[in-house]
Design a protein that fits this description.
Distance between the termini of chain A: 38 Å
Strand content of chain B: under 5%
Distance between the termini of chain B: 19 Å
Number of helices of chain B: 15
Number of strands of chain B: 4
Order of helices and strands of chain B: HHHHHHHEHEEHHHHEHHH
Radius of gyration of chain B: 20 Å
Shape of chain B: globular
CATH superfamily of chain A: P-loop containing nucleotide triphosphate hydrolases
Largest sheet of chain B: 2 strands, antiparallel
Strand order of the largest sheet of chain A: 6-7-8-3-9-10
Largest sheet of chain A: 6 strands, mixed
Oligomer: heterodimer
Number of domains of chain A: 1
Amino acid sequence: MAEPSEVLVKMVNIRKSFGHVEVLRGVDFEVGYNEIVGLLGDNGAGKSTLIKILTGVHQPDSGEIYWKGKKLVNYSVAKARELGIETVFQERALSEQHSLWRNIFMGREITNRWGFIDIRKQREEAERIIREYMGFTSSALSVDAIVGTMSGGEKQGVAIARALHFQADLIILDEPTTGLSLSETQKVLSFVEEIKKKGKSAIFITHNIYHVYPVADRIVILDRGRVVGEFMKAAISLEKLVEKLYLVARTGRLNDEGEVSQKTPTTPHGLESLMP
Amino acid sequence: MRNRWLSENRTQVSILFVLFVLLLLFIISSPRTFLSGDIYAAFMSTIPFSMIMALSLTLVVICGEMDLSFPSIMGFCGYVFTQVFHATRSVALALLVCVVVGLIAGYLNGLLVVKLRLPSLVVTIGTQFFWAGLTQVLCQGLGKTLVPTKESPLYYLLVGRVLGKIPAQIFWAVVVGFFLWLVLNRHRFGAHIYYTGDNEASARVMGVNVDRVKIIVFTQMGGFAAFAGVLASLEVLYFWPTLGQGYLLKTIAAVFLGGTPVEGGVGTIFGTFIGAIIIGILEAGIIAMGLSGFWTQLVYGLIIVISIAIHSVLRRRVA
């Protein structure tokens, strides 16, 4: 593939403080083309701040962001959407009292030049989209289904299908499996695999290593504003990874086999929640 | 296909059913009144004023907001209409100025709600007193005749009698209803009203300009309140300084009767249309049935509580 750069997005030495609290202390983070990256970290690790910087909500105090090799300046939420970065919030970007087809086109309706919605076209398109992106789900979803009556996994699926349809290159999944049952979680993981199949990239933010491991290509562990570990899935088994997480929790660092290790040791804390 | 239609429109079907039951009840109990055309002509002359405002208010409620100031805007705009008419002798100009003032008053409501992030209930309680107070200060409690408006063809267009019998204002109410239905169900802006009322945060994330939606929704409310004020004043050919009073609760009740819940996010123009008719025929019906006027409020209360209970049960079954 002839791409203008080897990675889709690259964040270099990102620092961010809120008042006296240093939330991000020089984070390097990147996502390749057609790569699913799992981002693990406890509350306060800096995950959400990092993502908010990536989506243009916050400006970093220092550091650079490159999109397809080009440095981003005057970065904003609108710019992020323009580039093709979509965030899928858990149940937050849906209009629950309305139909699936309306939700797919929410804020991006198909209209004529006077702004009147082409309902037939929208329903047909929605039909096509759920067949294409959600067709593997066992339940036969109707485009007229009210979103509020759908299961948590299906809702997440609608949001992901919508993002894929609107040509997002990078889909950020913010805790997509939190609060979902086992079978619903499976559904969401299938949707993530779908992102990979469509040749797009995703960042999967979670507390649960068991959810992200099966679908991720690479796993990044964030702890108190620093990247403390980075693993290619191909190079590490789930058992070994869990072992590493215990190590981080006990010693606050990783020191063998070329993983990113910390410059200064920290006391182990917080990472317990990453443990099974 | 038919089942889908029925399940999508069950609130509208149920409110239509309530209307038919009421009409049937009235016809059985006082056939002489309710089988003659006169009472329906009377209904068609009085119902449109609150109906137009109820239709417009439906958009506000769907958007998740509330407006309590429209009766005062209606009154103030009636005053503006009367003053401009007496100064210029032009009904067209008076109508134009009056509607523009109404739009501005509505716009101010929207601006206060959006920019100060205040609950619309609180803001419009304030502006309700403001516009009512301003009207009283300006007209010092004195009304003014509008008889000379009869010289203008516009008078007949607005409140004349079509074929000598049917009040023109009912056609205006239908036109307003159709226009708002079109906006709400077929236009992108209408979809954005629904999304804003359903889940404001979601709408924002998906790129809906929530603030703009709210401001426009309040603005149109002001405009239609002004229009209703003109119709109501022309119908009686007199401007009363108390114009607008008595419309508040009946208009809001028509919206809720029609199945639009106070939480917003859903609701229909058709439901409000029927709701406004029910509210409009109740009083005459109760009196024609031989009950004293004292019963009116009690029956109002009963019908409203029963209807919103039906809507609530139906909605829960859908969800």
